[in-house]
UniProtKB/TrEMBL annotation:
<dbReference type="InterPro" id="IPR012319">
    <property type="entry name" value="FPG_cat"/>
</dbReference>
<dbReference type="InterPro" id="IPR035937">
    <property type="entry name" value="FPG_N"/>
</dbReference>
<protein>
    <submittedName>
        <fullName>DNA-formamidopyrimidine glycosylase</fullName>
    </submittedName>
</protein>
<keyword id="KW-0479">Metal-binding</keyword>
<keyword id="KW-0378">Hydrolase</keyword>
<keyword id="KW-0456">Lyase</keyword>
<keyword id="KW-0863">Zinc-finger</keyword>
<dbReference type="Pfam" id="PF06831">
    <property type="entry name" value="H2TH"/>
</dbReference>
<keyword id="KW-0326">Glycosidase</keyword>
<dbReference type="GO" id="GO:0006284">
    <property type="term" value="P:base-excision repair"/>
</dbReference>
<comment type="subunit">
    <text>Monomer.</text>
</comment>
<comment type="similarity">
    <text>Belongs to the FPG family.</text>
</comment>
<dbReference type="InterPro" id="IPR000214">
    <property type="entry name" value="Znf_DNA_glyclase/AP_lyase"/>
</dbReference>
<dbReference type="InterPro" id="IPR010979">
    <property type="entry name" value="Ribosomal_uS13-like_H2TH"/>
</dbReference>
<keyword id="KW-0227">DNA damage</keyword>
<dbReference type="InterPro" id="IPR020629">
    <property type="entry name" value="FPG_Glyclase"/>
</dbReference>
<dbReference type="GO" id="GO:0003684">
    <property type="term" value="F:damaged DNA binding"/>
</dbReference>
Length: 268
DNA sequence: ACTATCCCCTGACGGC
DNA sequence: TGCCGTCAGGGGATAG
């Protein structure tokens, strides 16, 4: 499940490879990919012949900046992978590919077709959006946003309108480090507790980036290698195991249709 | 403003 | 062997 650290890992890998490359040809067999009434033809007209200036990330979105007024946004959702110079003979589930000069190809592999690709005008790439990224958001903005919500803190961390980049794995991990129970209403947390969550958020995401992300089922780096966070995770998918902090048995509950894992002893 | 629920899609897995 | 139900989970839509 690509979340912020996985997107960051992909961006770091791709950035030097595709900087300055020109887009020669686009291919796709999945109309749904483009959403909002767009299609491959409409996208092609605006991209073909353009140069990719840079590769960045906002939340879980991967952003290719073109040398015109557009950015190409890619969201991998749950099973999406970007493949660099993949082998056509080996891969199933390729939904989109982009030929670049120098005989290079960037392809989207996505088993469940939940991922999407959109062209977004640079003028709509607002600071407000960038400033909600989990690694950029200020403590004041984070705290003020949580103070306004009575939703459960687990859901608040997953809500991309509040903070961008956290998914189910890292929300569990962040709350474990912060010692906060996932069911707690966001607006019931005092400044001190929000500070703990804020610090844990930065710590967990940076640690996961250093490890190259979490490979559980589908996620791989564009070179096909696995990320290294999964073995060092503290709670996610550890129901019934002992908490690394205090030895209590880790519980798993459902919150809003998603699984949440936590230590019932130190997360309060 | 927020909650609850469904849907999109495919593959893995357990029960029989 | 294979059929069926369930689960994985981000985000959009919709009803309440």
């Amino acid at each position: 499940m690509p979340e912020l650290p996985e997107a960051e890992t992909i961006v770091k890998y791709l950035r030097p490879k595709i900087r300055g490359k020109r887009v020669l040809k686009l291919w796709s067999n999945t109309p749904r990919l483009f959403r909002q009434g767009k299609n491959l033809h409409k996208i092609s007209i605006l991209i073909k012949g353009k140069t990719i200036l840079d590769t960045t990330r906002v939340g879980k979105n991967i952003v290719l900046a073109l040398n015109n007024q557009y950015n190409l946004y890619i969201h991998l959702m749950m099973t999406g992978k970007l493949l660099w110079n993949y082998s056509k003979l080996r891969e199933r589930h390729i939904r989109f590919s982009m030929e670049l000069n120098g005989k290079n190809t960037l392809a989207l592999h996505d088993i469940r077709k939940f991922g999407w690709i959109r062209l977004i005008k640079k003028e709509n790439f607002s600071d407000a959006r960038v400033n909600k990224d989990a690694l950029s958001i200020s403590f004041e903005d984070f705290k003020n946003s949580l103070n306004l919500r009575k939703m459960k803190i687990k859901n608040a961390l997953l809500n991309q309108k509040i903070v961008q980049g956290i998914g189910n794995i890292y929300s569990d991990e962040i709350l474990w480090y912060a010692g906060i129970e996932p069911l707690r209403p966001a607006n019931s947390l005092n400044s001190k507790k929000i500070k703990r969550i804020y610090s844990a958020m930065k710590k967990v995401l940076k640690m996961a980036i250093r490890k190259g992300g979490t490979s559980m089922r589908d996620y791989r780096k564009p070179n096909g290698k696995k990320g290294g966070y999964y073995p060092i995770r503290r709670v996610y998918q550890r129901e019934g195991e002992k908490c690394a902090r205090d030895g209590a048995i880790i519980k798993r509950i459902k919150i809003g249709g998603r699984s949440a894992h936590f230590c019932p002893y130190h997360q309060t």
